[in-house]
Amino acid sequence: MAAYSSDFKHLFSNLGQSYLFCKRLFWKTMRFEEGMNMKPMKINCLFIYDPSKVKDAVPITSRLRRNDQSSTLYSTSIMDKTNVICLIFAALLFNVNGQGNGAVRLNNYGNTDVTNTRGVVEVYFNSRWGPICIKDSSYNHIGDVVCHQLGFNGGSSGSVSHDNPLNTEAVLTTVTCEKDMLVILQCRYETSVSSCEPSESVEVHCNTARLSDNPYNGMVRLQGGYYSGQGMVEIYCKESWKAVCNDDQFFKGEAADVVCVQLGYNGYQHYDKILYNGSAWLHGVDCKSESSSKCLSDCSGGSCRDSFFRCTSYGVNVTCKYDTQNSDEGGHINTCKIKSSRADSGLSGGAIAGIVLGAFAVIFAPLCACCCYILWIRIKSKRKDPERIPLQNKPEKD
After folding, report:
1. In a shared domain, residues 144 and 222
2. Per the structure, how many domains does the chain have?
3. What is the pTM of this model?
4. Are residues 203 and 236 in the same domain?
5. Does residue 220 sit in the same domain as residue 336?
6. What is the CATH classification number for the domain harbouring 193?
7. 160: confidence class by pLDDT, cuts 50, 70, 90
8. Is 220 found in the same domain as 206?
């Protein structure tokens, strides 16, 4: 589930004088300098007898689990009923903004952690998770694309292990991918799945190396999400990954779209600011005039700066999706890498002038020197040429 930074506040009247104040603090929203650990979400449930005074909360034993993550609930113990209200409210929060259409995961004997490198492929398609069914052993780069979507640099695919079948109904079949695709729904596929056996699901083994291990200037990634295509936006510049700062809150839906398209999706499901205190490369990113772009570096404020700075308020969290009703296709693995290479090799006017002058110095200067030398030799030789004395007629003898 994507992170929210906004405080969720709701007041429930209780006996005409008590109020339950449920405030969502953070879910995976606190990040510090160069750190990857994020604090889990907490929901504080407090009684307010006087709106100007809030009593200290104490932990209660109830635990709410979702996606194998626990969240501690806090409440005063004055009335047990309020704990139930807070749990219901928390459950609603947990179910807002989950994975986007087209997300993938690897199911390894029931473990679907986003860091898994092997398991049966499951795709979130039309609001449910299901495997891919392949009957003829034609896997057509499914492994590479699924692993790309999970952030790895490739992988292999094959039939599912006999001891790790999934009994859920398949969502895709006859899937054909190209090796440079980034998202499984970029591939050609069919959705009319019939009589598919659990053993005909696809199992994938991903390489341990990640796409971000071989980055390029302007490359983006999403960090800290529970699903593929979800997390805090980071960009690579000058040999380091750092955040996209949103202190000025310029980052809007158009920029979220471009981030998702660069990652292979064709749109965003949700974006929000999240509390962040650490290094950043970008701020003031505005893609309103570049909404058709596939690279964040094409947007205003989206290019790498000369140096990083400290972001003290907000970063950006994005959840991407692949909308099958949208004819737009997301970027491929080299779409923005090629643009980055061209930009890195681009020449300024001064550089071009320098090259021209250098070429003149290397080619024309020696030629001019040679011509001058020949001319000097000729002039010198003329000066040394002796004067001719005319012959005098000898007197004739008598």
Report:
1. no
2. 3
3. 0.67
4. no
5. yes
6. 3.10.250.10
7. confident
8. no
Whether 368 is in a domain gets the answer: no
Residue 330 and residue 248 share a domain: yes
* Domain match, 222 and 318 both: yes
Q: 184: buried, middle or exposed (CB in 10 Å: 19+, 13-18, 0-12)?
A: buried
**How far apart, in whole angstroms, are the C-alpha atoms of residue 328 and residue 148?**
19
160: number of CA atoms within 13 Å, CB side?
A: 26
The boundaries of the domain holding residue 75 are 9-94
> Using CA atoms, how far apart are residues 242 and 34, in angstroms rounded to an integer?
8
What distance in Å separates the CA atoms of residue 263 and residue 257, rounded to the nearest whole number?
10
**pLDDT tens readout for residues 300-345:** 999 999 999 999 999 999 999 999 998 888 999 999 998 776 655 5
Q: List, in sequence order, every beta strand (DSSP E) within 276-312.
A: 278-282, 309-311
In a domain, 389, yes or no: no
- pLDDT mean over 272-282: 94
Nearest of 68, 66, 75 to residue 94 by alpha carbon:
66
Nearest to 232, CA basis, from 32, 78, 42 = 32
Q: Which two tokens stand for residue 159?
A: 């039939």
With 0-12 / 13-18 / 19 or more C-beta atoms within 10 angstroms meaning exposed / middle / buried, residue 140 is middle
Mean pLDDT on 245-253: 88
Structure tokens at 13: 């009247």
Closest Cα partner for 299 from 287, 281, 284?
A: 287
| CB hemisphere CA count around 391 (13 angstroms) | 3
Q: Would the pLDDT of 395 be above 70?
A: no
Asked if residue 310 and residue 267 are part of one domain, the reply reads: yes
